[in-house]
Model the fold of this input.
Amino acid sequence: MPFTFLAVSVVGALFTLNGLRPIRWKYVALPSFSAAWLTTELAAHHLLWQLVATIAFIALGALRDWPGVLALAITVASWCGVAVLVKRSLEAGEVVEQALRDGLGPDYMARIAPELAARYDRSLPWRRLMVPFRMGLPEVERVKDVRYAEGAGRRHLLDVYRHRDRPTGCPVLLQVHGGGWVIGEKRQQAVPLMQHLAARGWVCVAANYRLSPRATFPDHLVDLKRARAWVRSHVAEYGGDPDFVVVTGGSAGGHLSSLLALTANDPEYQPGFEDVDTAVQACVPYYGVYDLVGEVGHPITNETIKFLERTVLKTSRREHPEAFEKASPICRVHNGAPPFLVIHGRDDTLAPIEAARVFVERLRARTAGPVVYAELPGAGHAFDVFPSIRTAHVIRGVERFLDYVYSTHLARVKAEVT
Done:
């Protein structure tokens, strides 16, 4: 029993250590990310199972020999590490709030419509956080598998999240899932964000799109433009306002949502529907991939280049560098870009944070609209997939940013009417 306790304690400590310092070495980055993701976003649960296991081992006499005593010491050290993980998660609220003050101004809350600001609750929903994989809210309904374009089977379907009271004229969120352009599905990401916003009166639309290797970029972006066109034509039937739409997405979804925002009405990506207005009023990319050409100083591995060449863009970067530039949001920044809130984890081992920083710098240098950048300590890739302490804080910050942009929109509409 003492040796079993020691083995379990070492495993728990390794998970904690990996959560504190995830490994970036390319050959183990993916498994390290997976382990760190579960440990950091479920830190309280990680602490709980270690505590229960420790009590059980002590009750079974594991401390009668030196391996058990050593195991207890390792476990206590692991608990200290978990406490650091929880602290980092709790800090996310202030980090996002400071980012909003820096990007929108210290008095930004005063410019949010009072009826929107009155509903804010910055307390954490602990009951939901304790059961993180039950993400639905009773006041929200989901309309499943609405077709937004012909062909491509389930890849041209979307889901609509809305309040059960079915209000009208609601602001709209378009969600783009990630998955490296080759996997992923509309029900797998940003569900906590969509549930929260739908409960507050938003209409949220989560769209599938064609995936590689069957699809070749820009097929992915064209599909999302079609989804945006569907929103313009049909979202009013579900209570949404087609004239106020924001787009969000994580990882490859962050890449595609940024391109969608930066290529509004570009006929190259709207074959057959060139005259449809596909502009969005704001963009909130999470841990996005912004640079496919490696121009900001961080190296792109040969494996990544080969993957993009063979699977996604299906062309040589050496022979057609312009294709990779056109697919890089960092190269598509222009002075007409909508407001951006860029969110990235400081411990992201999959999407380079250096590119996110330069992307934000270029947005701030070349655009007149607000640009907010929240760099989250201790956060890795895909941290927001299910409810967690960090996710809850970030969602509330995103809500304030969107309400700020929406309040500006409402004031502009009111001025035009009068």
